[in-house]
Amino acid sequence: MNICVGAGALTRPAERSSAALASTAANPDEGVRVYVNAKQAMNITVQIPTALRRHTGGTAKLTCAASNLNELFSTLDEKFPDLKPHLRDDSGQIRRFLNVYVNEEDIRFLGGPSYAFQDGDEVLLVPSIAGGSLG
Fold it and tell me: Model pTM?
């Protein structure tokens, strides 16, 4: 969620439009207005598969607020620091062998990391796992 705090006006003209402002709250003591951008974080459910649960202390499912994949990963990074290297590479991009599904649809076909979550979306993180033996 993008929050801008200022004394009556936002710093960027584009953010002043009524479409961009979801709500305004005034602090009567200080005369400060808080503007909440219309791109508010949505409540989503995240399913953690068994292969990643050792990095979440056994947590299999959680509900959190995020408006896109970057916000979701940031939330997961904070809550489960050991999970972070399994979600993103050193440049901050989604790991090559991590598949992300939103409501059973591959996020790559929904617009990729820029996909805007909708309230109630269910996100599933699926790491590709390879191995085995010949014989």
Answer: 0.66
